[in-house]
Amino acid sequence: MSVEEIEVVVVGGGQAGIATSEHLRGRRVPHVVLERHRVAERWRSERWDSLVTNGPVWHDRFPGMEFDGLGPEDFATKEQVADYLAAYAERIDAPLRCGVEVTSVRRHDGRRGFRVETSDGVYDARYVVAATGPFQRPVIPPIIPEGEGPVQIHSSAYRNPAQLPEGGVLVVGSGSSGVQIADELRASGRPVYLSVGPHDRPPRRYRGHDFVWWLGVLGKWEASTPPQGAEHVTIAVSGAHGGHTVDFRGLAERGVTLVGRTETYAGGTVCFASDLRENVVGGDANYLALLDEADAYVTRNGLDLPEEPEARALGHLPDSVTAPVLELDLAAAGVTSVVWATGFTADYGWLPADACDEHGRPRHQRGVSSEPGVYFVGLPWQSRRGSSFLWGAWHDASYVADQISIQRGYMEHNDAHPRPSHVQR
Q1: Could you tell me which of 252, 241, 30 has the C-alpha nearest to residue 125?
Q2: CA atoms of 322 and 278, how far apart (whole Å)
Q3: How far apart are CA 189 and CA 255, in angstroms?
Q4: Residue 124 φ then ψ, to 5°
Q5: CA-CA-CA-CA torsion for 187, 242, 58, 177, nearest 10 degrees?
Q6: What DSSP line would sit under 300-357, residue for residue?
Q7: Cα–Cα distance between 172 and 155 in angstroms, integer?
Q8: Each residue's pLDDT tens digit in the chain (425 positions)?
Q9: Bridge partners for 118 per DSSP
Q10: CB hemisphere CA count around 269 (13 angstroms)
Q11: CA distance 401 to 404
Q12: Nearest-angstrom CA–CA distance, 36 and 51
């Protein structure tokens, strides 16, 4: 079997892999980007039909290229994002090889580098960058046994209301995906229950600026660790219909029944935690706290931004919050489907064992793995809160490319100045 030698193998042709390629090319580092499907495939085939980005395109993009045909405050559709990434890869002449799946990365014995086995041959690489992103393996909690009760799908498999059997739907998860899918299903005329957990709930816009601007000027995108050590912070925000603030009161007014966290299932009945009010009020507190910080920032910097006192008018809590449903007989309620908007987990079984901990999570510092020669780009909270976004991955890729260049420099020095075989003492 022929073996192709290359300095760096980048695994993944999405936003993280393309960003990494740009920075490696800028540092004249030979590399190849291997993508098992098409460029940005998950944007095309693992998102629902009506999905748009949660941030406006002036913000959620790479620094070097704008979205064609969109205004700065517009929200790109999933196809526009995929097309943007494909065009960007072409623009930087990324050395992409699509339709190539990496099956194994193993360190060489007694020499530098790795043997990278793929569906299209073997590579001998000095360095490997895992740029497969945070959305690899859909997570469905083992609550309702498979094949029992309603149809169950993950949000990554959801496309539109017509895909589901007739009847009501339980949507589990109150992040961006969960609230948008629940709203779409209710608008289609279906009975919908939305299981709400702890979440952040920023305003879509406040005093003339989008929330992404506020998080930027307030330094929140640069936070290096999640609050209270949490690995993931659910953000309830939407770019749908031109962008709007997620309001659980509004969802309830439109007919969505809010319930607490989904806990157990037995005999056709789902049981919910009694934490719904706590979660909704906690989201309100997060929302109001951001308004307070924004107001203080305006005053401190003397900015001429219009006041918006109506943004603080939250209204009464809906009946589904004050008198929550704690048990739901799915059949009696006419619920025939469950959509799990419960996130993803990583799958790095193809990497050397020391690159991940006992739970399969990457062991790294700012993308530099504990396994020398292996790097990560595109992880949530890789270096900051914004790391898993387009612009965040771009900046993290720059740091990782720098680290690879530094290591190459050390090796080039070693090769140019070999240690004498006998050293006089």
Answers
A1: 30
A2: 10
A3: 9
A4: -105, 105
A5: -10
A6: HHT------GGGG---PPPHHHHS---EEEHHHHTEEEEEE---EE---TTS-GGGB-
A7: 9
A8: 689 999 999 999 999 999 999 999 999 999 999 999 999 998 999 899 999 999 999 999 999 999 999 999 999 999 999 999 999 999 999 999 999 999 999 999 999 999 999 999 999 999 999 999 877 889 999 999 988 889 999 999 999 999 999 999 999 999 999 999 999 999 999 999 999 999 999 999 999 999 999 999 999 999 887 765 555 568 899 999 999 999 999 999 999 999 999 999 999 999 999 999 999 999 999 999 999 999 999 999 999 999 999 999 999 999 999 999 999 999 999 999 999 999 998 899 999 999 999 988 999 999 999 999 999 999 999 999 989 889 999 999 999 999 999 999 999 999 888 776 665 54
A9: 102, 121
A10: 8
A11: 5
A12: 23
Instruction: Say how many CA atoms lie within 13 Å of 394 toward its Cβ.
Output: 14
CA angle 54, 251, 47 (to 5 degrees): 35
CA 331 → CA 320, 327, 328, 338, distances in Å?
A: 20, 12, 9, 12
DSSP state, 5? E
CB 377 within 8 A of CB 396: yes
Residue for token pair 């918006």? 308
Positive or negative, the Cα torsion across 246, 247, 248, 250?
negative
The count of residues in the chain is 425
User: String of b and e for 81-107 (b: at least 16 CB within 10 Å)?
Assistant: bbbbbbebbeebebbbeeebebeebeb
And the tokens for 226?
């999640």
For residue 1, give the amino acid letter. M
